[in-house]
Automatic annotation (TrEMBL):
Domain of life: Eukaryota
Annotated organism of origin: Diploptera punctata
Designated name of the protein: Ig-like domain-containing protein
């Protein structure tokens, strides 16, 4: 379901609901251990297309890319959510 590349990170866990009903909210989590390094970015994809990016050193740090059928809410959260 989720495919990607990861260099140097350990203990990466992704929590995604297996299914939701139309108009329900799903919260996606990415748990990781940077082992003292700084985070460059976290990106989420659906069908090979990026729909969300968190890059803490950029302004704005959160970017949302429109994809038909997805309604992404920009929430106040942390880098894991």
């Amino acid at each position: 379901m989720l495919a990607g590349k990861c260099w140097g990170l350990r203990d990466v866990r992704v929590t995604v609901p297996s299914a939701i009903l139309r108009n329900e909210t799903a919260v996606l989590f990415c748990h990781f251990d940077l082992e003292g390094d700084s985070l460059y970015s976290v990106k989420w994809y659906k069908g090979g297309r990026e729909f969300y990016r968190f890059t803490p050193k950029e302004n704005p740090a959160m970017k949302i890319f429109p994809i038909a059928g997805l309604d992404i809410e920009q929430i106040e959260g942390n880098i894991l959510q």
